[in-house]
Amino acid sequence: MQEDLLTKSIIRLAIDVHTALGPGLLENVYQECLYYKIKKAGFLVEKEKVMPVVFEDVRLDCGYRIDLLIENRLVLELKSVECLTDIHLAQTLTYLKLGSYRYGLLINFNVFKLKDGIKRIVNGY
Questions:
Q1: CATH number, domain 3-122
Q2: CA 120, 85, 73: angle at the middle one, nearest 5?
Q3: Tell me, what's the pLDDT at 52?
Q4: What are 77's strand-pairing partners?
Q5: Is the pLDDT of residue 18 over 80?
Q6: In whole angstroms, what is the distance from residue 124 CA to residue 67 CA?
Q7: Given CB 3.0 to 4.6 Å as the disulfide criterion, which of 64, 67, 100, 106 pairs with 119?
Q8: Tens digit of pLDDT for each residue in 38-92?
Q9: Residue from 115, 125, 123 nearest 8 by CA
């Protein structure tokens, strides 16, 4: 599936979850519900995918985890915060770089309208 169509499909599913639950819950609640919806829709999805850091030719498992990885090419970083900051964007970009992924979505569920909490990210390598 083309990345643009994949991204739109995942955003639709995230909006479904947000419409059902609303803002104000913990991040892990949204993650579990979105994971369920994505799997139910037939997409390949990994939850809490470990992202090692390679430093001086040594692979280090430092505790980095992608919230959701869709079809092994779209990174989802989920938040439930008052507002997204540059640190959240930097975290998502780090996951894209560590995994050599090109596309990501940073989604903040703690907003009135979910479209106001979504940032599409493209890694230029």
A1: 3.40.1350
A2: 30
A3: 83
A4: 106
A5: yes
A6: 21
A7: 106
A8: 999 999 999 999 888 888 888 888 778 999 999 999 999 999 999 999 999 999 9
A9: 115
Question: Cα 29 to chain center, whole Å?
Answer: 14
- Domain spans, the chain: 3-122
Residues 113-125: tens digit of each pLDDT: 999 999 999 987 6
Nearest to 79 by CA among 87, 88, 71: 88
* Closest by CA position to 23, among listed 84, 119, 116, 113: 113
For residue 75, the model assigns a pLDDT of: 98
DSSP 8-class letter at 8: H
CA atoms within 13 A on the CB side of 82: 0
Helix (H) or strand (E) holding 60: strand 58-60
Amino acid making up residue 26 = L
HSE (side-chain half, CA atoms, 13 Å) at 114: 22
**What is the dihedral angle through the alpha carbons of 117, 83, 35, 112, rounded to the nearest 10 degrees?**
-50
Instruction: Give this prediction's pTM.
Output: 0.93
Is the pLDDT at 1 greater than 60, yes or no? no
